[in-house]
Amino acid sequence: MKNINAVLFDMDGTLIDSEYFYFSNWAPILLSDYGLEITFEDWIRDFAGHTLQDNVEMLKERYNLQVDAEDLWFSTRASYARANMKTIRLMPHAKDLLETVKERGITMGLVTSSYNTTVQTVLGEHQLLDYFSFFVTRELVEQPKPNPEPYLLAVNKLNIPKEEIVVIEDTSTGCTSAKNAGLYCIAVTKQEVERKRLSHADVILNDLAEVKNSLL
Fold it and tell me: What is the largest CA-CA distance in the chain?
């Protein structure tokens, strides 16, 4: 691709290998508090890439569960704290990709449905915070992904034409947000269930090494 002056990254599942971490914390809570047993495949299909509120609504509608969003928020956050989010690994080739984009003088931003505390904890542990010019986190928007608000906010922060911005996402939810904001979106995932939902992405790649090659 040519004339790229900004790259906007999603975090969970894109830069950090967080989905199994989240699954391993949610699954025991769903089983003990609501009697619902889920597998990792269920997590990827139904939960990954969605906000807590979206997942609460899904649990109510699909499983007819009486789930309180505030209770689930406190339960999951307490579980994350006990599990230590600093143990979450980077996705393969993540740091190499960030370094390459930095060397080219391209501005980078992070657009995530996670809260700033999570960003600071996980990316801080891997010393990645300084790669980004700004962070758009959950508390900064009223309507999270798949609403375009997070990416529209990022565009306003950049003050760069949309045609010169590339988004890197791993889920249909994030891609929908980016495309509805009028941005070019590269989807990166090996999960077949997710790839089938990403027909609206401009291109689908397997990993961040392929993303790096596509940006050169």
Answer: 52
pTM score above 0.85: yes
Q: Are 153 and 128 in contact, with CB atoms under 8 Å apart?
A: no
Token pair belonging to 7: 């790259």
pLDDT digits (tens, 9 = 90+) for 71-120: 999 999 999 989 999 999 999 999 999 999 999 999 999 999 999 999 99
24/29 Cα distance (integer angstroms): 9
Nearest to 100, CA basis, from 198, 206, 7: 7
pLDDT tens digits along 2-29: 799 999 999 999 999 998 999 999 999 9
DSSP result, the chain: -----EEEE--BTTTB--HHHHHHHHHHHHHHHH-----HHHIIIIITT--HHHHHHHHHHHH-----HHHHHHHHHHHHHHH-GGGPPBPTTHHHHHHHHHHTT-EEEEE-SS-HHHHHHHHHHTT-GGG-SEEE-GGG-SS-TTSSHHHHHHHHHHT--GGGEEEEESSHHHHHHHHHTT-EEEEE---HHHHTT-TTSSEEESSHHHHHHHH-
Q: How many CA atoms lie within 13 A of 33 on its CB side?
A: 18
Is the Cα torsion angle 138, 141, 142, 144 positive or negative in sign?
Answer: negative
User: Are 179 and 171 a contacting pair, CB within 8 Å?
Assistant: no
φ, ψ of residue 196 to 5 degrees: the values are -65, -20
